[in-house]
Amino acid sequence: MLPRHLERFVWAPRDGVDPLLWPFAIPAVRQLISEGGFEVAPGVTILVGENGSGKSTLIEAFAAVYPRRGAESSSRIPVTGPAGMQEDSPLRWHLRAKTHRLAAPGGFFLRAEAMHGYLSQIDADPAEGRAWGDQQLHERSHGESFLEVLRHRFADRGVYFLDEPESALSFQSSLALLVILDSLRQEGSQVVMATHSPVLAALPGATLIEVGPWGMRQARWEELDLVQSWQGFLASPQRWLRHLMEITPSSP
């Protein structure tokens, strides 16, 4: 039985919850509210769905609530990931994390949109240089820098949150991330990730949650709308493009 440092996010509303307003009106969030929270499976949990379905809203709130501290204490750079953003939803204030009494303190929140600033922090700190091979992270490709952070900061047992990490990764780099995620699982960590990538969603043993107008539902990889759309497109891209061009009004 795989360990669960993080067992559940519990709905614990404060004042100011209007079910008609964002983010509480998002179907996935409405379902979380009606069910009193969100159960977190052992190993890797992957949220997939269209833009606007609420994946990132859930991930950022979950990452803000879990009390990860990181095993390192000497670094001046946050070892748990970039800080929250002003645009983050207020959902975090209405959740609390139910954790195991022996939950590991390790963890990281990798959010693609904030990683440029995080890498800049590391490059600007001379004390960090030795830990990163005395090479500026910004001198590497975006994908290489992402993978370097993943290898370096994902070394401790704990709970890891990733929001669309594939945005910086090639196909081969996505496969490298799969290996990292599987290693985390085998070493006793948990991962909660949002992705548009059918490659990352194919991780063996992952719990797949499809997010959409219906709320949240567990699915198998081959059942995901994401996978079926990619398979259909790759099988006959010209048919898809021809149909798309026919129904899309041409520019004046």
From TrEMBL:
It holds the Pfam family AAA_21. GO terms for molecular function: ATP binding; ATP hydrolysis activity. The keyword Transport applies. InterPro entries: AAA+_ATPase, ATPase_AAA_core, P-loop_NTPase, Rad50/SbcC_AAA, Siderophore_ABC-ATPase. Keywords: ATP-binding, Cell membrane, Ion transport, Iron, Iron transport, Membrane, Nucleotide-binding, Transport. Residues 41-213 form the AAA+ ATPase domain. This is ABC transporter, ATP-binding protein. It comes from Rhizocola hellebori.
